[in-house]
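thought: user wants a sequence for this fold. calling inverse folding tool.
action: design(structure=
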C-alpha cells in the first residue's frame, strides 16, 4: 500500500501500486475496491466529504513510452531526455466526492502540471488541518558528481510547469483550491502530519538511501509557514546564509524515511535504522522536549502510513499489511483484522519449566503467534523450528512426503518484530487440515543441535 487515510471510526482508505483505492473496515476486516485507474497514488486525506489524492498522472506512461517497454513503477531518465520529459509530465492532485457507502465520484483536478522526476520525487503525502490541505512535493534533482543539478529550468517554466512547487510543502483551501507555497528548501519529504499545536512535521530524505552516512543522515523537520530548510544547497558547493535555514529538530540514525505522525505524546517517525542489530524499517517516537527517540515498532517491510484511532496506531506497509499497535506496549493485532483480540487460544506458555523460558505460542485461525516479554537479543538470534503433520499425508508438498511432515522452520528477522522489550513473531500454517504441530527454538552446535524449548500441539479430530 502507498498511502492511507481515515474515513471515519470504522473505515480506512488505502491506495495501492495497482492504481486502486480500497476501503478497509477495521471492525470486520472486509476490503472493497472503490476506485481504479490512478497512477501511483502516493497521498490521501479526507476533508469535508471529499477524498484528496496525489498521483503521478501521465508520468509513468511517459516513462514507458520513452523506454519502449513496460516499466514497473517509475524511474530516473538520462539527462538528454529531461527537456521533453519534464515539459510533458504532469503529476497532479485530485479530489473525489465521498458517498455514504465510501464510494467515490465527482472527480476533480485540484492541481496539475506538477513536475515529477520519478515515483519518489513527486507529489507525496497529504494531510489537512480542517481548513487547508497540505502536500509535500519532492524536488526533481539528480546526483551528478558531488552536487545536485537541475537543468532546463527556464524551458520548464515556459511550458507552464509549477517550478515554484519543487521541493516544497504547499497548501490549498477548498473549494477555491488555489495552490500556494507554504515552506521551501525540502529535498523529498513523504508522509506529513499536523501536531496538536498546528506544526507540520515531516522527515526529509536528505540524500538518496544508498548515500546516507554517519555524517549525512536524514532529518526530522518542524515545518512552519515561510520556513526555508536548506535544500538544494546542502550537498553542493553553494550554501545559503546559515541564518536563513531552519535546522532540523532531530537527526535520524538511518535513511529512507517515509512518514512522520504527530500527536500529544510526540512525533512517530518511520524510517530504516542503520548501525545496530535492529537495522531495517522501524518506528521511533521523538519526545517534543528532548527529541530523544524511543523505539516503538520494528516492521517486516517499508512503512508507508501511520494513522491513529482510539489510542492505537495503524501502521500500513508497502507490502499491503496493516498492523495495529499499542505504542506503549506492543503490536496487538495483525492483518487481516479480528474483532476484539488476535488469538483464539494459547497452545503453549513459556515459563519456569522451560530452560531458558520460551515463547508463549498462540493459535489464531491458520497462524501461530509467538510472544515473549521481556525478551533479549538472544531470544531473536536463535532459530525457530516448526513442523506440521497433516491429517492426510497426501496434502504434503512432494519434497516433504518422504519426511512425513511439513518443515516450516524460520529465523525471527523474517517473521518477527520487536516493540520495546517485547518480541513477537507470526507464522502462517498450511491451509490443509493439520493433525499435529510442533515448534520451539534450536541452537546448532558442533556436535549437533539442541532445543532450548519445544512444545507439541494436537488438533482435535
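)
observation: tool returned 461 residues.
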Amino acid at each position: 500500500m502507498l498511502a492511507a487515510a481515515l474515513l471515519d471510526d470504522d473505515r480506512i482508505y488505502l491506495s495501492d501500486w495497482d492504481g486502486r483505492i480500497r476501503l478497509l473496515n477495521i471492525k470486520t476486516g472486509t476490503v472493497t475496491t472503490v476506485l481504479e485507474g490512478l497512477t501511483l497514488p502516493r497521498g490521501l486525506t479526507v476533508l469535508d466529504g471529499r477524498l484528496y489524492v496525489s498521483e503521478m498522472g501521465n508520468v509513468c506512461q511517459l516513462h514507458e513510452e520513452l523506454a519502449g517497454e513496460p516499466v514497473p513503477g517509475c524511474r530516473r531518465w538520462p539527462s538528454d531526455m529531461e527537456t521533453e520529459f519534464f515539459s510533458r509530465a504532469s503529476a497532479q492532485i485530485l479530489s473525489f466526492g465521498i458517498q455514504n457507502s465510501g464510494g467515490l465520484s465527482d472527480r476533480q483536478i485540484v492541481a496539475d502540471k506538477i513536475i515529477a522526476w520519478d515515483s519518489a520525487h513527486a507529489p507525496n503525502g497529504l494531510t489537512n488541518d480542517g481548513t487547508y490541505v497540505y502536500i509535500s512535493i519532492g524536488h526533481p534533482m539528480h546526483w551528478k558528481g558531488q552536487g545536485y543539478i537541475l537543468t532546463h529550468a527556464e524551458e520548464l517554466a515556459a511550458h507552464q510547469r509549477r517550478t515554484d512547487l519543487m521541493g516544497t510543502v504547499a497548501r490549498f483551501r477548498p473549494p477555491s483550491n488555489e495552490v500556494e507555497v507554504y515552506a521551501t528548501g525540502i529535498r523529498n519529504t513523504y508522509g506529513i502530519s499536523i501536531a496538536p499545536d498546528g506544526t507540520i512535521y515531516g522527515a526529509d530524505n536528505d540524500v538518496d538511501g544508498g548515500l546516507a552516512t554517519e555524517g549525512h543522515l536524514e532529518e526530522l523537520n518542524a515545518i512552519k509557514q515561510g520556513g526555508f530548510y536548506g535544500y538544494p544547497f546542502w550537498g553542493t558547493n553553494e550554501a545559503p546564509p546559515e541564518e536563513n535555514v531552519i535546522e532540523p529538530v532531530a537527526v535520524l540514525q538511518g535513511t529512507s524515511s517515509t512518514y512522520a505522525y504527530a500527536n500529544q505524546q510526540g512525533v512517530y517517525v518511520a524510517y530504516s535504522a542503520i548501525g545496530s542489530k535492529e537495522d531495517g524499517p522501524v518506528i521511533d517516537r521523538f519526545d517534543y522536549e528532548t527529541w530523544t527517540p524511543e523505539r516503538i515498532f520494528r516492521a517486516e517491510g517499508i512503512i508507508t502510513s501511520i494513522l491513529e484511532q482510539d489510542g492505537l496506531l495503524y501502521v500500513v506497509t508497502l507490502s499491503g499489511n496493516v498492523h495495529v499497535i499499542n505504542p506503549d506496549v506492543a503490536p496487538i493485532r495483525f492483518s487481516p483484522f479480528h474483532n476484539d483480540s488476535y488469538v483464539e487460544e494459547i497452545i503453549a506458555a513459556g515459563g519456569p519449566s522451560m530452560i531458558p523460558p520460551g515463547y508463549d505460542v498462540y493459535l489464531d485461525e491458520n497462524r501461530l503467534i509467538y510472544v515473549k516479554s521481556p525478551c533479549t537479543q538472544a531470544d531473536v538470534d536463535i532459530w525457530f523450528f516448526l513442523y506440521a503433520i497433516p491429517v492426510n499425508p497426501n496434502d504434503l508438498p512432494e519434497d516433504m512426503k518422504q519426511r512425513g511432515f511439513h518443515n516450516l522452520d524460520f529465523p525471527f528477522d523474517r517473521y518477527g518484530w520487536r516493540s520495546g522489550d517485547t518480541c513477537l513473531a507470526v507464522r502462517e500454517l498450511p491451509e490443509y487440515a493439520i493433525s499435529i504441530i510442533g515448534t520451539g527454538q534450536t541452537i546448532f552446535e558442533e556436535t549437533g543441535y539442541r532445543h532450548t524449548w519445544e512444545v507439541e500441539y494436537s488438533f482435535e479430530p
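thought: summarizing for user.
answer: Here is the designed sequence. The CA atoms of residues 229 and 245 lie 5 Å apart.
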